[in-house]
């Protein structure tokens, strides 16, 4: 396809599946996609947006929309999302992940694979989840994480979520891996915190990969390098 025709196609609207690199923000990825499209297709302006934020310490599937397809972002955001999460047991952090240092340690000798399985089953279904203080939720016009980093009090209302499926993939005394299929708005970091509490210990998220959003899967996603290299072939 020639450049002019491809530019028209991206303007009309395309869905691009990308694997977000570790340490990139979701905005970093969108900004890069926009820059690549504009430079390679000679477009002065192009709308680009994404259907669901991933934290910088997470990797995996991001659904990026261009042009008129950005009108459907809300629909994609509302789809069920699947994650693979590594959770470290016996230690907590203020951010519930590796963004901050360990603040407390707890015993893990009493934790067994059977106990983890029993605890995970209690999270299945509709429930209310308290978001992490280190989140992008707004508190009186300020992002919660900005207040949390300053040590200021953060009051966030619990939100209704739906965990459709949750299962253990692997177990060791100090770390488990789980697969979660859940609704929009679910914080896997907060889930890690709550799992630690129900295990009568502590826990934090050590790694996260998003593997699907609705019918879109990570297996079909491009790296940002492949996207940039092969844009004219898409």
User: Per CATH, what is the topology of the largest domain?
Assistant: Pseudouridine synthase
Number of helices: 7
Structural class determined from secondary elements: alpha+beta
What's the end-to-end separation, in Å? 8 Å
Return the domain count. Answer: 2
- Name the CATH homologous superfamily of the largest domain: Pseudouridine synthase
Write the layout of secondary structure elements.
Elements lengths: L2 H10 L2 E6 L5 H16 L6 E3 L7 E9 L6 H5 L3 E9 L1 E2 L11 E2 L7 H9 L3 E5 L8 E2 L2 E2 H6 L9 E13 L3 E8 L5 H11 L4 E11 L2 E2 L6 H7 L4
Parallel strand pairs: 3-12
Antiparallel strand pairs: 1-3, 2-3, 4-11, 4-12, 5-6, 7-10, 8-9, 10-11, 12-13
Which descriptors would you attach to this protein?
Pseudouridine synthase, nine-stranded mixed sheet, elongated, 2 domains, two-stranded antiparallel sheet
Task: Describe the overall structure.
By secondary structure, this protein is α+β, with helices and mostly antiparallel strands. It folds into 2 domains: 3-78 and 215-233, 2-Layer Sandwich (Pseudouridine synthase), CATH 3.30.2350.10; 81-213, 2-Layer Sandwich (Pseudouridine synthase), CATH 3.30.2350.10. 27% of the residues lie in helices and 32% in strands. It is built from 7 helices and 13 strands. The strands form 3 sheets. Strands 1, 2, 3, 4, 7, 10, 11, 12 and 13 form a 9-stranded mixed β-sheet that branches. Strands 5-6 form a two-stranded antiparallel ribbon. Strand 2 (48-50) and strand 3 form a beta hairpin. It is elongated and about 65 Å long.
């Amino acid at each position: 396809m020639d450049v002019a025709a491809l530019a028209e196609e991206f303007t009309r609207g395309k869905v691009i599946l990308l694997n977000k690199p570790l340490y990139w923000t979701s905005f970093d990825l969108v900004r890069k996609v926009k820059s690549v499209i504009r430079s390679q297709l000679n477009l002065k302006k192009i709308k680009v947006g994404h259907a669901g934020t991933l934290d910088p310490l997470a990797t995996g599937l991001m659904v990026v929309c261009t042009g008129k397809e950005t009108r459907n972002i809300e629909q994609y955001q509302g789809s069920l999302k699947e994650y693979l999460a590594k959770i470290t047991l016996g230690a907590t952090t203020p951010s519930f992940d590796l963004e901050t240092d360990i603040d407390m340690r707890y015993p893990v000798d009493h934790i067994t694979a059977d106990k983890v399985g029993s605890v995970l089953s209690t999270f299945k279904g509709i429930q209310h989840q308290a978001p992490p203080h280190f989140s992008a939720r707004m508190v009186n016009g300020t992002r919660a994480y900005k207040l949390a980093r300053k040590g200021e009090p953060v009051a966030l209302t619990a939100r209704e979520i739906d965990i459709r499926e949750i299962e253990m993939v692997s177990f060791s005394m100090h770390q488990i891996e789980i697969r979660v299929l859940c609704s929009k708005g679910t914080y896997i970091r907060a889930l890690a915190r709550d799992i630690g509490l129900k295990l009568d210990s502590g826990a934090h998220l050590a790694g996260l990969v998003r593997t699907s959003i609705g019918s879109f899967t990570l297996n079909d996603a491009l790296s940002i390098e492949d996207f940039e290299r092969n844009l004219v072939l898409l």
